[in-house]
């Protein structure tokens, strides 16, 4: 019974905001290099320059103190392969330029055991690559040896919003 009351109260609050003309704005992440669901250009892969693609972040919620970023491939044959882990991007970050992160950001360890970005390099077929940006209510105190699991653990209870961009890549052999 309590769960039903809570759901009704939350729904009523959202309904009141909509009735008052308030918009609910969703954080987004996009790339000028490729559309959501489309092919990632070879430049951003192990077959090209292997630099991170430019990203654009919009509608970061109030109360955000930092952003975090994870790029991974759930289609890898040995399980999800992590290509990029970063945190403490400044809360006012709206663009991440090609090949670099904003000052103050920290890059963690990917599945190759290296810090920084590692572009798509699927052994076969077409793989999906998810770029997830998280708005956090804190600045994280993590060593640069932190991997995705460590980052996700540190973020628990601090995520205000999440945005996802998915690109695909196939080597076309």
Fold topology:
Blueprint: H1 2-19, E1 28-30, E2 55-58, E3 66-73, E4 81-90, E5 95-96, E6 106-107, E7 126-136, H2 148-155, E8 159-170
Antiparallel strand pairs: 1-2, 2-5, 3-4, 3-7, 4-6, 7-8
Structure description:
By secondary structure, this protein is an alpha+beta fold. It has a single domain, classed as Phosphatidylethanolamine-binding Protein (Alpha-Beta Complex), CATH 3.90.280.10. It is 15% helix and 30% strand. The protein has helices spanning 2-19, 148-155, and strands spanning 28-30, 55-58, 66-73, 81-90, 95-96, 106-107, 126-136, 159-170. Strands 6-4-3-7-8 form a 5-stranded antiparallel beta sheet, covered by helices on one side. A hairpin with a 7-residue loop joins strand 3 and strand 4 (81-90). The chain is globular. It starts with a helix and ends with a strand. The model is unreliable at 1-21 (pLDDT under 50).
Number of strands: 8
Biggest sheet architecture: 5 strands, antiparallel
Remind me, CATH topology?
Phosphatidylethanolamine-binding Protein
Mean pLDDT: 89
Descriptors for this entry?
disordered N terminus, 2 helices, 5-stranded antiparallel sheet, Phosphatidylethanolamine-binding Protein, single chain, alpha+beta, 173 residues
Task: Give a quick precis of the structure.
The protein has helices at 2-19, 148-155, and strands at residues 28-30, 55-58, 66-73, 81-90, 95-96, 106-107, 126-136, 159-170. It is an alpha+beta fold and 173 residues long.
